[in-house]
């Protein structure tokens, strides 16, 4: 009898152990994978999904910030075609912008401009596709790294959000240093998770020096932990990469600016040691990035903040490596929220990390109940598993709604400028004039060669506007006397004689003051497209596309290309 009871107790204990192993995810033994068995996701699905979405972004994305045009597309246009606008940051007196970053894109834009000759719009989109390719490769490697370390589910959720969240869709093909830093953060995070610490630090260094120096805060956690793991080898790798790229940047700056200088140090000096006056270009409140983050990532942005709370129940899965990877979200948001000058693009470097953190939280939903309800087949655990794809689907649907609203509400400028190619009969030397819509100028890539010049018309703006590169003064090495770092308007930036304008770009928002296009004796409207009126449209309906209500509730103006009627 005693022997039978002992056997029963032993059997019950073994059954309990097996049950615990079956129901406790954290204590579950790792599955041994044979040499021939593939671990994690393969390359095919991430490359195909990301490649398709990045191509869609490259061909349909709007330009979200005039800095992208005037500080990057215009210098590239000047390098390729010897014409374009110059900002004060590119004056050799200040030299705040790196030409090495521009030359990187000229490696693609140059051959494209030779092949397509005068089809400059094609060159613009080819460069964008190049940006999409970089985004695709770096993000695909990140997804693969996540799948190998944490499983296919977390990787798949991250992949879905990288593909479809509005923030990643728009940032991935923007020609901005913050986007380049995003690529570097993505790639260095992937390499860190794969245990390639030397490469992770080298990529992080390239992102900081070649892209955006301030992104050093974003790559610091991965860099520090890589140095702890690899020590001297990792340090030497990062040091050699930094010295090489910095030296190359100085040489390129010397070639372009005509003097020995470093745009990297100049930018840091202006914004840090020199008490930079970025506040001159607009300030926002402390909640700006929280609102902006929700608009671009909706509920996944909220879930990303819950990641730290979920560590209590998922620490064995995610700490320390995944915490190291996503920790820049909180560091960067805290730091940037304290700055007076805020821009949406400043958050680009952490966009992929938001997707990772949110995906980890969604993947961990059942863990909330496993510790309390040990039975894997319980209704509450099953419900939490069903809840995972539901919340993911909700995030993706709202993201698509946001993307659709922006693309269809604000794409008119890019499309209207394309109509210029149909009016070559206006003759060589035509003058294209732009008034208050200067900040939506899509770049000189959209201006045909028969247009002799693009001029600004005074419509009340009192800040400093870009001026054409002047080859007689030295082109990239010139220091135009009209430039200043105080955002004070120059007398020479406006065309005073509006009668010299052949074409005019205008946004007619049906305000009480008359539009130039209303003068039918002087101007004819040769192209027009609807443009979402931000001021008169409700915030919810303009931010997210809601079927039927989007057209009904929002107010639209007309974005117009006007052509002067010849005098008889």
TrEMBL record:
Q: Sorted alphabetically, which InterPro entries does this protein's record hold?
A: GPI_mannosylTrfase
Which residue ranges have biased composition labelled Basic and acidic residues?
1-12, 19-34
Q: Where in the cell is it found?
A: Endoplasmic reticulum membrane
* Biological pathway: Protein modification; protein glycosylation
EC no. given is: 2.4.1.-
Listed under GO biological process in this entry are: protein N-linked glycosylation
**CC annotations in GO:** endoplasmic reticulum membrane
A Pfam family of the record is Glyco_transf_22
Entry membrane topology: Multi-pass membrane protein
**Keyword presence, Endoplasmic reticulum:** yes
- Disordered: annotated span: 1-34
Family (UniProt): Belongs to the glycosyltransferase 22 family.
Q: What is this protein called?
A: Mannosyltransferase
């Amino acid at each position: 009898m005693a022997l039978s009871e002992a056997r029963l107790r032993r059997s019950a204990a073994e059954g309990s152990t097996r049950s615990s192993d079956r129901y406790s995810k954290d204590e579950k033994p790792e599955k041994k994978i044979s040499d021939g068995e593939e671990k994690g996701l393969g390359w095919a699905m991430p490359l195909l999904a990301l490649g398709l979405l990045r191509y869609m972004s490259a061909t349909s994305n709007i330009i979200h910030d005039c800095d992208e045009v005037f500080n990057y597309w215009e210098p590239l246009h000047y390098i390729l075609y010897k014409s374009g606008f110059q900002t004060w940051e590119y004056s050799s007196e200040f030299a705040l912008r790196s030409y090495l970053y521009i030359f990187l894109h000229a490696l693609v834009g140059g051959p494209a401009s030779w092949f397509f000759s005068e089809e400059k719009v094609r060159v613009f989109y080819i460069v964008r596709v190049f940006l999409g390719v970089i985004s695709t490769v770096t993000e695909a490697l990140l997804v693969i790294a996540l799948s190998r370390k944490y499983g296919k589910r977390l990787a798949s959720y991250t992949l879905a959000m990288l593909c479809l969240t509005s923030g990643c869709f728009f940032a991935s093909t923007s020609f901005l240093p913050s986007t380049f830093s995003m690529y570097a953060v993505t790639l260095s995070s992937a390499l860190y998770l794969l245990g390639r610490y030397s490469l992770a630090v080298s990529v992080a260094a390239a992102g900081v020096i070649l892209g955006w120096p301030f992104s050093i805060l974003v790559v610091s956690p991965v860099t520090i932990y890589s140095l702890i793991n690899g020590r001297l080898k990792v340090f030497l790798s990062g040091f050699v990469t930094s010295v090489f790229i910095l030296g190359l940047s100085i040489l390129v700056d010397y070639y372009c600016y005509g003097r020995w200088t470093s745009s990297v140090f100049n930018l840091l000096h202006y914004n840090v040691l020199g008490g930079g006056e970025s506040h001159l270009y607009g300030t926002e409140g402390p909640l700006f990035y929280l609102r902006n983050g929700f608009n671009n990532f909706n509920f996944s942005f909220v879930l990303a903040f819950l990641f730290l709370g979920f560590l209590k129940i998922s620490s064995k899965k995610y700490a320390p490596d995944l915490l190291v990877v996503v920790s820049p979200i909180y560091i960067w948001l805290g730091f940037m929220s304290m700055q007076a000058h805020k821009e949406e693009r400043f958050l680009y470097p952490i966009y992929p990390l938001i997707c990772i953190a949110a995906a980890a939280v969604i993947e961990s939903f059942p863990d909330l109940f496993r510790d309390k309800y040990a039975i894997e087949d319980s209704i509450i655990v099953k419900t939490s598993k069903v809840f995972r794809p539901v919340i993911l689907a909700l995030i993706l649907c709202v993201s698509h709604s946001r993307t659709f609203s922006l693309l269809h509400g604000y794409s008119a400028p890019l499309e209207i400028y394309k109509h210029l190619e149909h009016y070559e009969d206006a003759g060589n030397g035509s003058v294209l004039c732009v008034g208050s819509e200067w900040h939506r100028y899509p770049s000189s890539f959209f201006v045909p060669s028969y247009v002799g010049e693009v001029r600004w018309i005074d419509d009340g703006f009192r800040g400093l506007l870009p001026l054409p590169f002047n080859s007689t003064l030295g082109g990239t090495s010139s220091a135009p006397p009209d430039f200043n770092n105080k955002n004070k308007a120059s007398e020479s930036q406006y065309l005073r004689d509006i009668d010299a304008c052949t074409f005019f770009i205008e946004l007619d928002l049906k305000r009480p003051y008359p539009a130039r296009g209303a003068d039918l004796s002087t101007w004819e409207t040769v192209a027009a497209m609807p443009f979402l009126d931000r001021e008169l449209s409700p915030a919810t309906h303009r931010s997210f596309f809601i079927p039927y209500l989007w057209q009904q509730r929002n107010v639209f103006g007309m974005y117009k290309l006007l052509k002067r009627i010849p005098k008889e």
